[in-house]
Each structure stands twice: as structure tokens, then as C-alpha cells.
């Protein structure tokens, strides 16, 4: 495939399918670990720089990748790998008291935090397996949802708390939107896989809570951090707008990711408010987040609208082009189609590795290199594969 943009139709199903396969091809020769699970931590050239670490999110995302790939392409190796990864989740990450360990190194749990965010991805992985015909995943799906109900669901707040210690007795005072966003994603997937309406009901409850109720505290946008009473915490990580999991500021990528979830929810349970709010979140994110000088979407925007984190992260671009396409299909507004294409054009030039394959994790504002760590812990290109699959799914 030529790198010349003028020869590429980013809307073409053939282009999207080819890009999926080229991304999977980066991981295929090097990701499988015969001792269990999958390797993470790849340099740009595919060399593994930390073969001993297994992070929960990465382990679960690999399962999602291979289960979904098998469901769509029926490659038996991908089915085997999805089962392999699910087994590693449920026999190595899963601990005796029911929680899934956040970080394992050389078979030892080295980060004992129990994270709602990570358990959301276990549910997503199980749902993807179920859709791929792996019936054993139903038990994992039900048990992990029940675990989240017991240890993280706050009925009065209509939201999930974030973090416990490994005894499960101590709950952190921190509250955040990110775990809830990915729970909404996982619950929608669980509903599509299983048809149990409790998952759809809870996804809708989270969407209402975060996109409407809590967003009213922050001028209609979704803030990242809250105190124990679910009041916006403007000071949390104020000196760390570049944090990978809990950055300060408004995240354009999270506004558009929520927008995508609202549009998926609208497909399942139509309501004009979902489309209206999806447009509002997306439009605001692109207004403040699109880099008018260099292209691409910034990582973080301060409450006053200025840029607080100028890096360009792969997942922000991927989630946003998927949302732009969904908005175009829902509204027929050509603005969103134009956005889809301009995001892809910038990514094709700056975020995609045309030498070795897959996407770079992060670039400087001008698209230049920051480091050569393509896939540190947690990055499995689940965002980029998922975005392509999402575009294909809506036509």
C-alpha cells in the first residue's frame, strides 16, 4: 500500500480491513507467550523490552482483539489465542478472593491495587469471547459483573468507585470517570453478547450520570476526577496533565469516546438526547482539541480552553475518527465525514508505523518522535483495531 494519501480511500471497507490485518500482523509473530498469556512492551521494531510483565488491562485487551478477530475472520489461531488469554486472566490474574491482579511480574503480583478500570476490561474481554462462541466466558462475565456490584458499585451515586486494596476492605477516596466510561463500554458489549437487559440498563444509567448529571458541574463536559461525594475535584493531579491514566484537564479523547458510547446506546435504545449530547461532546472536543497549526488532537485541555498537554496520543485520534464516522452516519452532516478523513490523514502521516506496522503510542505536537516504545504495558492496539471495526460495523 502506498503512503501517498491521495491514493487512499479511508472510508473504504477494503482499506479498513487491510489496516486491521496489518496491525494484527505486527503482534502475531511476537506476542504469544508459551508459558501463559501474551507478551507486552514492544519497541517500534517489535523487540520486547520487558518480557516478564503482565498488566491486567493489556491481558484483557489482547483477549478482546483475538476474540473479535476470530468472530469476524474465523482464523482458528485467533480462537485459540482468545481462549489462551481468557485462561490466563481467570487462572493467573484472578486471585483467591475474586479480584483480578493489576500487575504480575514473573508470576508474582507486584502492584496490589484492585482497579475497577481493569475489571471493566475483564468484562469486555469476556463479552468478546462470548460473541465469538466461547461459552466458558459466560461464567467470567457474570462473576466479574457481580464482583463490581459488590465492591465498586455505589447505588446512591449511580456510579462505580475506583480502587481498593487487595484485601478488598479499604476503598480509596478517589472517584473518576475513566473506569465508569470503560464499564459503560463493557456493559454495552455484555448486552450485545448476552442479551441480559440488566447490562443495557446499567450502561444507560452510567451514560445519564456522567454525560448529563455530572457534566452539569463542568459546563457540559465530562471532568476526569471527583471527590468521595462525586463533586468535581479540580486539583487532583493538577501538576500532572500528562498522566497516562489520571491526567488533569479535559480529555478531548474521553469526550469523543463518551460520544461514541452514547451513539452505540442510541442504536440499542433510541433516544434523541443521546445524539444531541454526543454531538455536543464531540463538537466541543474538536473545537478546543484539534491542533489548527499541526493537525491531530491534543491530549489535554485546561478548563479555560488552553492546551495543557500538547502530545498526540494514538487512542485519542482513533476513538475520535470512529466517533466522527458514527456521527456522520447518524446525522448525515458532512462536517463529521470531513473530520473522519482529516483525522485519518494526520494519523497516516504521523501515528502509523509504515515500516514495522501498528500505531505509535504518542507523538510530540508536531508529530515528531518522543520515544521508541510503541507498545508499553496496556497498549495492544485495541483502540485502533476497535475503531476500525466500529466504523465497519456501522457501514
Short note summarizing the structure:
The chain is mainly alpha-helical and 395 residues long. Helices cover 50% and strands 9% of the residues. The chain has a single domain, classed as Glycosyltransferase, CATH 1.50.10.
Please supply descriptive tags for the structure shown above.
single chain; 395 residues; mainly alpha; Glycosyltransferase; 3-stranded antiparallel sheet; two-stranded antiparallel ribbon; 12 helices; 15 strands; 50% helix; globular
What can you see in these coordinates?
The protein is mostly helical. It has one domain (5-390): Glycosyltransferase. 50% of the residues lie in helices and 9% in strands. The chain has 12 helices and 15 strands. The protein has helices at 13-27, 56-73, 76-93, 116-131, 137-151, 178-194, 197-213, 252-268, 272-289, 314-331, 334-350, 382-394; strands spanning 42-43, 53-55, 103-105, 108-111, 114-115, 153-154, 159-160, 163-164, 175-176, 225-226, 300-301, 307-309, 312-313, 362-363, 373-375. The strands form 7 sheets. The protein has a 3-stranded antiparallel β-sheet. Strands 1-15 form a two-stranded antiparallel sheet. Strand 3 (103-105) and strand 4 (108-111) form a beta hairpin. The longest helix has 18 residues, at 56-73. The radius of gyration is 20 Å and the shape is globular. The protein starts with 12 loop residues before the first helix and ends with a helix.
